[in-house]
């Protein structure tokens, strides 16, 4: 034990002595101001990370009417005193004592940071994921439970709640099933609230995937079955990321207010729910086709390059729309003719049909990005074209490269003045 620092040894001994300490994870996993930690008995806890790099914990349900404190705001009252404010009725609770100025009292828990690991003093076992929910969802996907058996509590049944759940779901088949179910419930009016939630820094992925840098992925040219499988596998990987990008734009920007003070229209979220549903359909079609060719998703390496664009634009909705939906999605239209011809040349009609479905849907996705980009610019009195060009130059590496699917882009509403000025000028 001599090689341990004395303070660390003392802290670890105290943790071992008191069996109520629960290790909830590494400090780096809790950058968000509020993180909900789940307990099997329903006594969930919110872990609060304040700007002075301190951690606090209390029951996540407001003792007034059960409001979700994990969606609340942290307010500084001065003199080092901070409170967590319930988003429902604005009851405040002192992070240190749990006392409210409204006369209520919430349960607080001691938190300790030991060698970058966070411990909370509670008898309940805590998890970042709702264990009961995960078990029920797995049964739902297997057909052993109906959707009625996996409903969240009323305070959680919001679009952002489900968006975050889907982002944290590593299995792509389960991600697809949840996406299509949530899309149906939103379209039918069963889910009505957009809500708020903190999306993960990066979506979850299955541990058995081999992840390489984008430039090291071999996509093939479609001349053999193995090469066609590689192309389909690459597209399926892109579609899985596209599902997550759709849910991330919903959750990450749900509370955005325009310069006018107005929130994003309800239709904004409806449009991106549709995009998410389309991408889920695309992944399912591609995964099915890969299976028909005697392979499976995960048999080949994948990359996460597309998520880098999400990270780079996580602070700016206009930048996200410009880069992800008006550059990357539009690029998908550009490469479609050549990709289609490779499969057609080998007589692979089934794959051609899948690619045609993806192409038609992707036109509507570019159109959605363009529609909301121009809407926000007009509301905020910004010039659409110059704003787009500036954002692409700032967040996209290099020039846009031809050939372009002029017809596909035009159908989406993206005429040449949008992208031709971003092509490298002739030397």
TrEMBL record:
Name of the coding gene: LOC106587701
Pfam families assigned: DUF455, Rieske_4
Keyword Iron-sulfur included in the entry's annotation: yes
Sequence ranges assigned to domain Rieske in this UniProt record: 21-120
Keywords: 2Fe-2S, Iron, Iron-sulfur, Metal-binding
Protein name: Rieske domain-containing protein
Domain of life, source organism: Eukaryota
InterPro entries cross-referenced by the UniProt entry: DUF455, Ferritin-like_SF, Rieske_2Fe-2S, Rieske_2Fe-2S_sf, Sol_Rieske_ferrdox_dom
Record's keyword annotation contains Magnesium: no
């Amino acid at each position: 034990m001599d090689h341990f620092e004395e303070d660390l040894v003392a802290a670890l001994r105290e943790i071992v002595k008191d069996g109520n300490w629960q290790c909830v994870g590494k400090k780096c996993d809790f950058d968000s101001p509020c993180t909900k930690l789940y307990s099997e008995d329903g006594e969930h806890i919110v872990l609060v990370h304040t700007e002075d790099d301190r951690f606090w914990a209390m029951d996540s349900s407001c003792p007034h009417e059960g409001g979700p404190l994990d969606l609340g705001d942290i307010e500084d009252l001065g003199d080092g005193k901070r409170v967590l404010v319930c988003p429902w009725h604005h009851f405040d609770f002192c992070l240190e004592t749990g006392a409210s100025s409204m006369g209520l009292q919430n349960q607080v828990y001691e938190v300790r940071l030991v060698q970058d690991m966070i411990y909370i003093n509670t008898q309940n076992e805590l998890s970042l994921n709702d264990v009961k929910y995960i078990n029920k969802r797995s049964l739902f996907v297997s057909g052993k439970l109906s959707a009625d058996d996996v409903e969240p509590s009323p305070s959680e049944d919001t679009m952002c709640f489900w968006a975050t759940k889907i982002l944290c779901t590593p299995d792509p088949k389960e991600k697809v099933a949840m996406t299509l179910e949530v899309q149906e419930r939103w379209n039918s009016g069963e889910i009505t609230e957009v809500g708020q939630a903190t999306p993960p820094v990066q979506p979850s992925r299955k541990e058995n995937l081999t992840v390489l840098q984008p430039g090291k992925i071999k996509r093939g040219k479609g001349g053999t079955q193995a090469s066609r499988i590689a192309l389909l596998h690459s597209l399926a990987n892109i579609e899985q990321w596209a599902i997550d990008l759709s849910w991330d734009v919903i959750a990450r920007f749900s509370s955005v207010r325009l310069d006018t003070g107005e929130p994003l229209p309800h239709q904004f979220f409806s449009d991106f729910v549709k995009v998410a549903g389309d991408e889920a359909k695309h992944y399912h079609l591609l995964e099915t086709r890969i299976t028909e060719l005697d392979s499976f998703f995960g048999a080949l390496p994948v990359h996460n390059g597309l998520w880098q664009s999400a990270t780079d634009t996580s602070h700016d909705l206009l930048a996200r729309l410009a880069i992800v939906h008006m550059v990357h999605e539009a690029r998908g239209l550009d490469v479609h003719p050549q990709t289609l011809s490779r499969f057609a040349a080998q007589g692979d009609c089934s794959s051609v049909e899948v690619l045609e479905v993806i192409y038609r849907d992707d036109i509507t996705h570019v159109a959605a990005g363009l529609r909301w980009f121009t809407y926000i610019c007009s509301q905020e009195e910004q010039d659409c074209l110059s704003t787009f060009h500036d954002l692409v130059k700032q967040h996209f590496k290099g020039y846009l490269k031809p050939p372009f699917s002029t017809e596909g882009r035009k159908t989406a509403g993206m005429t040449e003045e949008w992208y031709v000025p971003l092509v490298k000028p002739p030397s």
